[in-house]
Design goal:
By secondary structure, this protein is of the alpha+beta class. It has helices spanning 2-19, 114-145, 152-179, 182-192, 198-207, 210-213, 216-230, 252-255, 272-288, 304-314, 330-334, 359-371, and strands at residues 23-29, 38-46, 51-59, 65-71, 76-82, 85-91, 97-100, 109-111, 241-243, 249-251, 261-267, 293-299, 319-321, 342-346, 352-355. The chain contains 12 helices and 15 strands. The strands form 4 sheets. Strands 13-12-11-14-15 form a 5-stranded mixed beta sheet, covered by helices on one side. The chain has a 4-stranded mixed beta sheet with strand order 4-1-7-8, with helices on one face.
């Protein structure tokens, strides 16, 4: 009788577990597909190298409508493949997705997947923002090569466009923060961290569901967040050694000795907002350098001539370093820099006083610190 009771309990537990399985469906409709073609569902297994593994497949039938069923799926990036076409999409592990595949896949229609929709909006806004910064850099270089400066009639409309695109990105990021789902994690890991305060991201992570936290992106997000927390106000910046344009090595903790306030400024010649802020930093530098203030700028440029030309054009007479690795710049990676401009205001021991201050806020903070005893 005892053995029978144990068996019944085990069966009930198994049945309950099975009944609680979460099934997420991907409904596909592909009017132009050929009957008999093979369609594959893949899941991203390596975000860095963008590798996808096939997890399921089906054959196109005469209805051209089929469904993939995922049992207890991980929230992550997936991919649908048909012939030579590939469609990336994000599954939140909870919601069903309806896709109408068209040829070409660029005209594909995805609905009933708010996570995927928001991420796509961010990617588009982010891409347009990046293109506008590149356009500014190329336009500026043309005038530099001619030995002149870009006229305001050309510069101002470009900067206005960049500001507008940055505002679009910001609005999308705010929406992602309120939702606290996979889209927030992806946006932060894809360069959106500078749009948020650390406390906001930490609270959002606490609200995330277990299925998001346990996903590969969720785990990567947590690791990023832990590192970001160490680079917040009150934390101590990591040391680094980089080379100046003339090849001289500069070690941060040697550079900051004996100084009162130091600005670590991550920037690039192609970064519109960086170039727009430079005159403000130049003014602050000259007004406070005799009071113990100094600047060390780390460039995310990849070409020496662009880097040095921007330094000269903007009159940036302080210390500059870079390995010219672009977005792979070693110090930028060490400091979790995913967007520029990005700044850290520190004291002579490397303790972070403030981050990402600009304009009047930066001026007031530095003056207050430099004038204090």
């Amino acid at each position: 009788m005892k053995h029978f009771r144990i068996t019944v309990i085990l069966l009930l537990i198994t049945s309950l577990s099975y009944s609680q399985q979460k099934v997420v469906r991907i409904h596909l409709e592909f009017p132009s597909a050929k009957e008999g073609e093979r369609i594959y569902l893949c899941k991203e297994s390596n975000r860095t190298q963008k590798i996808f593994d096939i997890i399921d497949s089906l054959s196109v039938g005469n209805t051209r409508k089929h469904t993939f069923e995922l049992k207890n799926p991980q929230a992550d990036k997936y991919q649908v493949r048909l012939s030579k076409n590939k469609l990336d999409l994000f599954i939140d592990g909870i919601s069903d997705t309806y896709i109408i595949l068209n040829d070409p896949f660029a005209k594909t229609y995805i609905k009933s997947n708010a996570t995927d929709t928001l991420i796509r909006l961010y990617e588009k806004a982010n891409q347009n923002f990046a293109f506008s910064q590149i356009y500014l850099g190329l336009s500026n270089k043309k005038y530099i090569d001619q030995g002149t400066t870009m006229p305001d009639s050309i510069l101002k409309p470009i900067l206005k466009m960049i500001d507008t695109l940055n505002l679009q990105k910001g609005n999308i990021c705010k929406e992602a923060l309120n939702r606290s789902d996979l889209s927030l994690a992806y946006i932060v890991l894809s360069g959106g961290a500078s749009q948020y305060e650390n406390i906001e991201i930490n609270k959002a992570y606490d609200r995330m569901s277990l299925i998001i936290r346990q996903s590969d992106i969720g785990k990567e997000f947590k690791a990023f967040l832990d590192k970001l927390n160490n680079l917040s106000v009150g934390g101590k910046v990591p040391d680094f050694t980089e080379k100046t344009p003339d090849g001289k090595e500069v070690r941060l903790y040697d550079f900051i000795k004996g100084k009162k306030v130091i600005l670590i400024d991550f920037w690039a010649s192609w970064c519109g907002p960086c170039r727009k802020e430079n005159p403000n930093v130049v003014k602050i530098f000259y007004e406070n350098k005799e009071k113990g203030f100094d600047v060390i700028s780390v460039s995310l440029d990849s070409k020496m001539e662009n880097w040095t030309a921007a330094i000269e054009t903007d009159g940036l007479t302080w210390t500059h370093v870079s390995d010219l690795g672009g977005w792979k710049e070693k110090t930028a990676k060490l400091y979790n820099v995913t967007a520029v401009p990005c700044t850290f205001l520190i004291d002579s021991t490397g303790i972070i006083i403030a981050t990402n201050l600009r304009g009047e806020e930066l001026k007031d903070k530095i003056e207050s610190l430099c004038n204090s005893k």
